[in-house]
TrEMBL record:
It is an enzyme of class 3 (hydrolase). Residues 135-295 form the FCP1 homology domain. It catalyses: O-phospho-L-seryl-[protein] + H2O = L-seryl-[protein] + phosphate; O-phospho-L-threonyl-[protein] + H2O = L-threonyl-[protein] + phosphate. This is Ubiquitin-like domain-containing CTD phosphatase 1. Keywords: Hydrolase, Magnesium, Metal-binding, Nucleus, Protein phosphatase. It comes from Dryococelus australis.
Length: 333
């Protein structure tokens, strides 16, 4: 007699009981049952803690081989088709999405073209920013990508923590002392929100994100060599928030083309991939946290070359500042 298999799927903050299976059913049958409950298609499902000999089981693997206990909780990542439409469907004026180009900013001169400035003005006017926290007076601005910058969204793992870039929370905690932080991803808002929950960013007590921007805040531009690409123009933020300008804004992204509109404000971060192999040796965020701290007192970021950030040396204090500091110390002793 076949034994029944009852499991619970945790997804998007909710739990779904799957009780229509037997141990002779396959993983694909399980995925179809999950599809019926959640409407997430089988090919979109990532079952994080479902393992066979330390690896994700194939779809034809029988459930009996997994030795699941009754009521076993499966952690799932996956998006509904309507939630990822913005990320998977190119805009009408973008005939082709170019995959991971490392475009040098010298190849295009686009920052002041009227057609792109008009697109930015439309985003400033029409794009609605949902404020999560208020900007703080006197803070500079850090704009962060997600995929391959903070999170490896393609490797397999049992928990979201294993896909998170090492030292993420330490990095954000350090940056928050001097910078307001914005997350800007070329995906849908729903997916951004889910990722920030998964990584514990949206609820962390040591720092706060002021808002998220999704793919609808991006614009398409034409480059002579690669044709039409989508970019993240910082002018959208600057047009909505007067306290942020090119003088006090820096953007981290693993793809250079995303900051083609503002090459002087972009820093191309090394992508975080193959998390299972690299999570124990990746130190990129620690080094970048130091860089952000070192440049926090620069009056104008336009004077910096972020391409050579690893060679940056903080300016030494002037004698006048040293005397002032020494005087303050003497008075307090």
């Amino acid at each position: 007699m076949e034994n029944a298999v009852d499991v619970i799927v945790k997804w998007s903050g909710k739990e779904y009981k799957i009780s229509s299976l037997s141990e002779n059913d396959s993983v694909y049958t399980l995925k179809n049952a999950i599809h019926k409950e959640t409407c997430v298609r089988p090919e979109r499902q990532k079952l994080l803690n479902l393992k066979l000999k330390g690896k994700p089981p194939d779809d034809d693997c029988p459930l009996s081989a997994l030795k699941l206990k009754q009521g076993f909780k499966i952690m799932m990542m996956g998006s509904l088709e309507e939630d990822i439409a913005d990320a998977s469907t190119p805009p009408e004026d973008m005939p082709e999405v170019i995959n991971d180009l490392d475009i040098e900013e010298e190849e295009v001169a686009i920052e002041s073209k009227d057609v792109y400035l008009a697109k930015i003005e439309r985003r400033i006017r029409d794009y609605k920013v949902n404020m999560l926290n208020e900007p703080r007076e006197g803070k500079k601005l850090l704009v962060l990508d997600i995929d391959y910058t903070l999170f490896d969204h393609r490797s397999t793992a049992e928990t979201g923590y294993e896909l998170m870039r090492p030292f993420l929370h330490e990095f954000l905690t350090s940056a928050y002392q001097d910078y307001d932080i914005v997350i800007w991803s070329a995906t849908s808002m729903k997916w951004i929100e889910e990722k920030m929950k998964l990584l514990g960013v949206s609820t962390h007590s040591c720092y706060k994100i002021i808002f998220y921007l999704d793919s609808s805040a991006m614009i398409s531009i034409h480059t002579p060599k690669y044709g039409v690409v989508q970019v993240k123009p910082l002018g959208v933020i600057w047009g909505k928030f007067e306290q942020y300008t090119s003088r006090n804004t820096i953007m981290f992204d693993d793809i250079r083309r995303n900051f083609l509109m503002n090459p002087g404000n972009g820093l191309k971060i090394r992508p975080f991939k193959q998390a299972h192999l690299n999570r124990d040796k990746d130190r990129e965020l620690l080094r970048l946290a130091k860089y952000l701290k070192d440049i926090a007192h620069e009056e104008d970021f336009n004077s910096l070359d972020h391409r050579h950030w690893e060679r940056y040396k903080p300016k030494k204090k002037s004698n006048k500042q040293d005397v002032k500091d020494g005087s303050s110390t003497s008075q307090g002793s």
